[in-house]
Amino acid sequence: MSVDPLRHIPEATVNRLPLYLRALVEAAEGKHPTISSERLAERAGVNAAKVRKDLSFLGSYGTRGVGYDVEGLLFQIRTELGLTQDWPVVIVGVGNLGHALANYRGFGARGFEIVGLVDNDPSKIGEEVAGVEVRPLEELGDVVSGTSPAIGIIATPAAVAQDVADRLVAAGVSSILNFAPTVLSVPSNVSVRKVDLAIELQVLSFYNQRQSETGAAAG
Amino acid sequence: MSVDPLRHIPEATVNRLPLYLRALVEAAEGKHPTISSERLAERAGVNAAKVRKDLSFLGSYGTRGVGYDVEGLLFQIRTELGLTQDWPVVIVGVGNLGHALANYRGFGARGFEIVGLVDNDPSKIGEEVAGVEVRPLEELGDVVSGTSPAIGIIATPAAVAQDVADRLVAAGVSSILNFAPTVLSVPSNVSVRKVDLAIELQVLSFYNQRQSETGAAAG
């Protein structure tokens, strides 16, 4: 099953690989040796045909009537996502969210190691969070050159997020994860992903509303 | 454009509606009166055919050569997602993440009002966060009966998340947003959504790895 490591994988498929990964980790924890595309689809919130199509881009086709080998597919998706190596991460903004992210166990478990913390609040400088000392924003360049983070996380208020993004880019960071509720402008060689903490609340809202409407219709 | 409010919308489509909503809000902020399905697809990270299919479930088809009316589609998706009404929310776990969520501006802006905060740490009880007093976990039932939250957010460590979920369900909360890195068991009439803060980091990891490989191949 040799696969060209640089073949094209559609962006939408890439976006779903972490969902499949999470479903597979749960299956592995439940000691399931195999998983059907239907079950994988259900746990990832997509349909089974899409699962099969997505995984075919990885050269993975499963076995008819049996499904996919959980451990094998886990390894394959982890390799595809680059999770078999560690990625150093710097967090800018050490407020409540930055603290929570620095201490979030789900990062370390998946190879994202926090190597730098930066803030512009003098009262936070020198504080140690998750074993890392908070450095001043002015020293971001030094932090980046000293720790070579692959990814910069912005956990600041929206008003300063663009300035922070500019500084990260100037320091040589080309992947940014933005938690600030604002759209960032960056050069085309820089990847930015945005986390919107309200997305899932909105999905719950949909089902809540449906439930009330059904209740009203039935009542 | 009268549409049966209880017609079926596929789960995967519901999951994408918040992405379209975010893209449309950005388009509205950029003063764009219309948006093409291609542009909407790009901003939401899916393909244009899927955008058209998804929006057709809402009875929205756009205009050939013009695209979708941004304000009209915004209203339609907000209505569909139940965002034209407010949803009271209770947060259990007022550590760093709970603090960050209680203060997250993106919630209030979209109609999610924090009406209750609960923690089991005596040092936090009575503290006021975002204008709401932190109450002890034992009083969760009272908090729920007094504020009728539509949604409970679990922002506790993984070890106590199931206990908290059981308490929320016992108190009558039937929608749960879980930030704890664990799988919850709940009755079938309870909706649970999980937020995994590492999902987007993994997508960045994919592109980072690609970039290194391309660099290595070129070098």
Structure described in brief:
The structure is a homodimer of 219-residue chains. Chain A is of the alpha/beta class.
Description:
With 219 residues, the first copy, chain A, is an alpha/beta fold. Chain A folds into two domains: 11-80, Winged helix-like DNA-binding domain superfamily/Winged helix DNA-binding domain (Arc Repressor Mutant, subunit A); 87-194, NAD(P)-binding Rossmann-like Domain (Rossmann fold). Helices cover 45% and strands 17% of the residues of chain A. Chain A has nine helices and nine strands. The first copy, chain A, has helices spanning 11-29, 37-44, 48-56, 70-80, 96-102, 105-108, 140-147, 158-170, 199-218, and strands spanning 34-35, 68-69, 87-92, 112-119, 128-129, 132-136, 151-154, 175-178, 191-194. In chain A, the strands form two sheets. In chain A, strands 5-6-4-3-7-8-9 form a seven-stranded mixed β-sheet, with helices on both faces. The first copy, chain A, has a two-stranded antiparallel ribbon with strand order 1-2. The mean pLDDT of chain A is 89. At the A-B interface, helix 1, helix 5, helix 6, strand 8 and strand 9 of A face helix 1, helix 5, helix 6, strand 8 and strand 9 of B.
Explain the layout of strands and helices.
The structure is a homodimer of 219-residue chains.
Chain A: H1 11-29, E1 34-35, H2 37-44, H3 48-56, E2 68-69, H4 70-80, E3 87-92, H5 96-102, H6 105-108, E4 112-119, E5 128-129, E6 132-136, H7 140-147, E7 151-154, H8 158-170, E8 175-178, E9 191-194, H9 199-218
Parallel strand pairs in A: 3-4, 3-7, 4-6, 7-8, 8-9
Antiparallel strand pairs in A: 1-2, 5-6
Helix pairs in contact in A: 1-2, 1-4, 2-3
